[in-house]
Amino acid sequence: MAHQQPFDPYFLHQPDYGGNGINTLFVSGLPDDIKAREIHNLFRRRPGFDSCQLKYTGRGNQVVAFATFVNHQSALAAMHSLNGVKFDPQTGSVLHIEMARSNSRRKRKPGSGAYVVIDNRNKAAGDAQESSGDDSGESEADEAPGDKGDIDITKSAEAVDGSETAVPSENEQAEKTVNVVSEDTVDGVSRCSTLFIANLGPNCSDDELKKVLSPYSGFKAVKVRSRGGMPVAFADFEGIEQATQVMDALQGSWLESSDRGGMHIEYARSKMRKS
DNA sequence: AGCACA
């Protein structure tokens, strides 16, 4: 019985389990000429990334993707950093990312690439053709939220196949899918070596946060501010990279004092004043 | 859904 009590949020007090167990993201809003490689390049830099798959749903030219991470937090962090991002300035397509209904069961095969393509376009037309080299059996691992029922649009059987199934080579240099305006700006988000932490419980203290944050390299200081309402905190780090690591590691995780959900962590708008 | 301290 892996049943979680929906009415008791305290079943996951361990920082390692600061989530509902879902580590896969559902991605829509993709242009229909998207390549699996692009999905891979979009997510591969995100901490905790494991693998991804591009799926032609068979509904027209609809394309969705699933990205799997090592845990819920890293999936959440990636979702937060990429959701709403304008993916293609030409077509104006904007990424819509949410937690998948279920985790990807497809394990990354050793020696094969970190991404895979599932093409249901022909299946929808009654044709049983496999995308190259796919393992037989279930090729479905996840279901899109709000994707119940099979509305067969027996249309579009254009074979735009090939090239996506290629194994990604070690091209570490040719990836500018994510817009980097300046070193400190990614996807239009200004990064900062100070983090802003919200969604804290009313009793959250500096000490509690310090205990959680101090194990991370580069941690300098944390301050909780209450301003009457719910507290927020600012955590300062040596550099942006260290701050990012902590944000990715702790995004969505619960503290003992949490009562409204896990921590919501963003880059602060300004650096903590030097002391 | 909330960003201070100088």
**Distance between the terminal alpha carbons, to the nearest Å?**
51 Å
Question: The CATH topology of the largest domain is what?
Answer: Alpha-Beta Plaits
What number is the mean pLDDT?
76
User: Can you write the helix and strand succession as a string?
Assistant: EHEEHEEEEHEEEEHEEHE
Helix content: 10-25%
CATH superfamily of the largest domain: RRM (RNA recognition motif) domain
Query: Main sheet?
Result: 5 strands, mixed
Tally of separate helices? 5
The number of distinct β-strands equals 14
If strands are numbered along the chain, what order do they take across the biggest sheet?
Answer: 6-1-3-2-7
Number of structural units classed as domains:
2
Strand content: 15-25%
The radius of gyration computed from the alpha-carbon positions, rounded to a whole number of angstroms, is: 21 Å
CATH class of the largest domain: Alpha Beta
Oligomer: single chain
Low-pLDDT parts are 1-18, 128-141, 146-177
Class per helix and strand makeup: alpha+beta
Q: What is the architecture of the largest domain at the second tier of CATH?
A: 2-Layer Sandwich
The best one-word shape is: elongated
